[in-house]
């Protein structure tokens, strides 16, 4: 069971990189409307337009499609002013459309100290699931869940990690909270065995050297030199930098765990220069709003600009610097167990992926073609 595609329906969602996306079946009039919005980017393969994720852009999208039928991701709806939501409510597609707001789910997740990202994801998938089924939550059965997962695979082309998060979200609500047992028959998809994209040392140097703004340079240098996640670097506080022990204290990271990682001499020198100029107070890298740290979205933009300036053509993100940190340490002879500790991986299996992208061993192997005695000049 899937949704019937309708012409004239504009879907406003978020993609994996956090940008706002606008999609619709081809309609010249809708194309003209989307072209009136600044900051747009067309994704040919995925067939959607994307925009930077901010409140101003979202309101411009809503205004551009005034009078059209718009489906807005519940996560994005939460960011809209009340008067905008009132003008563009989520369409009701049938008599059983649930108005359940999952306040009970939110309270349970928060009381168990789940991360903000997990809470947001679990609420999203449960709301999206009910919209898909067009049922009230008490009428849900296992076939509804199987149909929803099939919809995510076939229509949304969701990755394995996305499917697993959707399953986790549904199992938590219907299994853990509502005690429905049918959910435990749902099989998890096999994991994608994708290798991370890694920069060479030369490419990493080009990216870091291309950044002139001292604050931006300090951020990217810390991510690469310490193997930080982007969410970790923006949440650093000045007291987390231990220059005496040459360590960085990462607090409340993934899985609510603390850890220590390396503080590079070169990164420390840049940090000191940055400190003298900006004098940060609460957060090491403060955002535009007082008392707030720099957004992940801003760091993504900093990194993309640096890559463009450095001429990097690989499909990379800020997280690529973390992958490159681990791979370069492994190639330099650092034991995998130490790399696991520095990255904050709970299981060694997660860290072992870097053995598959490291050139340390592969570089010593000679291709059989290079052992052949070929007559390169051809027949004479």
List the main descriptive attributes of the protein structure presented here.
380 residues, DNA polymerase, domain 1, hpI Integrase, Chain A, five-stranded mixed β-sheet, globular
Structure write-up:
- This protein has 380 residues and is an alpha+beta fold.
- The protein folds into two domains: 9-185, DNA polymerase, domain 1 (Orthogonal Bundle), CATH 1.10.150; 201-362, Intergrase catalytic core (hpI Integrase, Chain A, Orthogonal Bundle), CATH 1.10.443.10.
- Helix content is 44%, strand content 8%.
- It is built from 16 helices and eight strands.
- The protein has helices spanning 28-34, 55-64, 74-77, 82-87, 103-111, 116-133, 142-154, 160-177, 201-209, 214-226, 230-234, 265-278, 296-310, 319-331, 336-343, 348-351; strands at residues 9-14, 20-23, 41-43, 48-51, 69-72, 241-242, 247-250, 259-262.
- A five-stranded mixed beta sheet has the order 3-4-2-1-5. It has a three-stranded antiparallel beta sheet with strand order 6-7-8.
- The relative contact order is 0.08.
């Amino acid at each position: 069971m899937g949704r019937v595609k309708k012409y004239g329906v504009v879907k406003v969602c978020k993609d994996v990189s956090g940008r706002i996306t606008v999609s619709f079946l081809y309609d010249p009039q809708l194309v003209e409307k989307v072209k009136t919005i600044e900051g747009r980017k067309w994704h040919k393969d995925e067939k959607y337009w994307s925009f930077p994720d901010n409140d101003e852009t979202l309101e411009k999208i809503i205004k551009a499609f005034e009078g059209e039928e718009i489906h807005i991701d519940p996560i994005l709806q939460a960011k809209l002013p009340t008067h905008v939501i009132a003008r563009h409510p989520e369409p009701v597609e049938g008599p059983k459309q649930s108005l359940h707001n999952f306040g009970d789910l939110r309270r349970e997740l928060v009381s168990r100290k789940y991360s903000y990202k997990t809470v947001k994801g679990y609420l999203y998938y449960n709301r999206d699931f009910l919209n898909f089924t067009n049922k009230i939550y008490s009428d849900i059965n296992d076939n509804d869940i199987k149909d929803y997962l099939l919809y995510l695979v076939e229509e949304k082309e969701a990755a394995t990690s996305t499917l697993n998060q959707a399953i986790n979200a549904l199992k938590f609500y219907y299994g853990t909270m509502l005690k429905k047992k049918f959910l435990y028959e749902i099989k998890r998809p096999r994991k994608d065995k994708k290798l991370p994209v890694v920069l060479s040392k030369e490419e990493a140097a080009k990216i870091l050297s291309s950044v002139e703004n001292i604050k931006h340079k300090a951020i990217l240098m810390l991510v690469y030199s310490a193997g930080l996640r982007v969410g970790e670097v923006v949440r650093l506080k000045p007291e987390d930098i231990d220059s005496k022990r040459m360590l960085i204290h990462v607090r409340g990271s993934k899985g609510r765990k603390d850890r220590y990682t390396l503080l590079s001499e070169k990164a420390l020198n840049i940090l000191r220069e940055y400190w003298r100029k900006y004098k940060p107070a609460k957060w090491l890298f403060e955002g535009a709003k007082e008392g707030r740290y720099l957004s992940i979205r801003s760091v993504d933009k900093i990194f993309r600009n640096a890559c463009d300036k450095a001429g990097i053509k690989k499909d990379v993100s800020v997280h690529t610097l973390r992958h490159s940190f681990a791979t370069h340490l492994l190639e330099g002879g650092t034991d995998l167990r130490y790399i696991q500790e520095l990255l904050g991986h709970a299981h060694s299996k997660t860290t072992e992926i870097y053995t598959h992208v490291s050139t340390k061993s592969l570089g010593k192997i000679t291709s059989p073609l290079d052992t052949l005695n070929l007559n390169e000049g051809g027949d004479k």
